[in-house]
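Hypothesis: this fold can be encoded by more than one sequence.
Test: take the C-alpha cells below, design a sequence, compare later.
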C-alpha cells in the first residue's frame, strides 16, 4: 500500500478505509490490487470488473470482457503545489463498444460526461480534473483474423478531491465503469443504449 517505508499518516489510512467501505453495485466485482510505488509517497489501488451475473461470491474477474478498470489513490505531501492537495485520484476504465457506435463522433464526449455526472451524483467534490476518452476500432489479421473487427471505449482521468468523502469518489468511478459496460443506471444518466436509440431516430 505504501510507496515508501514511512508509516502511512492517519489521513491516508482513513481514506483507504472509506474506499474499502464504498457501496458498489452487485455487478461490479472488485479487489485491492498492487498500486504503483513510484508515483507518490503512499498509494492504494482497486481493480474492478463488470459481470451481469451479479454473483458476489464469484472470484473477481478484474479483466472482464464486459468492462474493467482500476482506481488509484495517491497521497504525497510534496505534490500540493501541482495537485492543489496532498491527495489525487487516478482512474482507468474500458469496455467493449458496439461497432456501429464506434462511428458516433460524440461517444467520447458522452463518456466523459458520465464521469462528471457520476462525481456530481455521488456528491464527490473535486478540482483540477483532466483526462481523455478514446474510442478505438480494430481488425484482426493472420492468426487473429477470427477476432474480426471490434470497437472499444476507454477513459483515463485524474482529479483532486476537495473533501474527505473518499467513498463517494470510488462509487463515482464504479458508476462510470458500469455505465460503460452498458448497465442501466438511475434517472438522469444516459446509457449507451439510450444514446444509440436517440442517434437512430435522428
Amino acid at each position: 500500500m505504501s510507496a515508501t517505508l514511512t508509516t502511512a499518516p492517519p489521513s491516508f489510512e482513513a481514506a483507504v478505509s472509506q474506499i474499502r467501505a464504498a457501496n458498489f453495485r452487485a455487478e461490479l466485482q472488485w479487489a485491492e490490487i498492487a498500486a504503483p510505488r513510484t508515483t507518490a509517497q503512499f498509494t492504494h489501488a482497486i481493480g474492478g470488473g463488470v459481470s451481469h451475473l451479479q454473483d458476489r461470491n464469484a472470484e473477481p474477474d478484474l479483466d472482464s470482457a464486459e468492462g474493467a478498470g482500476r482506481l488509484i489513490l495517491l497521497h504525497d505531501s510534496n505534490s500540493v503545489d501541482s495537485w492543489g492537495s496532498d491527495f489525487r485520484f487516478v482512474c482507468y476504465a474500458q469496455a467493449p463498444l458496439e461497432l456501429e457506435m464506434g462511428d458516433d463522433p460524440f461517444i467520447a464526449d458522452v463518456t466523459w460526461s458520465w464521469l462528471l455526472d457520476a462525481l456530481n451524483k455521488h456528491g464527490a467534490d473535486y478540482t483540477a480534473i483532466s483526462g481523455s476518452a478514446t474510442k478505438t476500432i480494430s481488425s484482426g489479421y493472420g492468426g487473429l483474423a477470427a477476432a474480426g473487427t471490434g470497437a472499444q471505449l476507454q477513459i483515463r482521468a485524474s482529479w483532486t478531491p476537495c473533501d474527505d468523502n473518499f467513498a463517494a469518489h470510488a462509487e463515482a468511478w464504479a458508476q462510470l465503469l458500469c455505465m460503460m459496460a452498458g448497465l442501466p443506471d438511475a434517472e438522469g444518466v444516459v446509457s449507451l443504449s439510450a444514446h444509440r436509440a436517440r442517434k437512430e431516430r435522428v
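The radius of gyration is 18 Å. Strands lie at 28-33, 42-50, 68-75, 87-97, 126-139, 149-161.
Hypothesis status: open.
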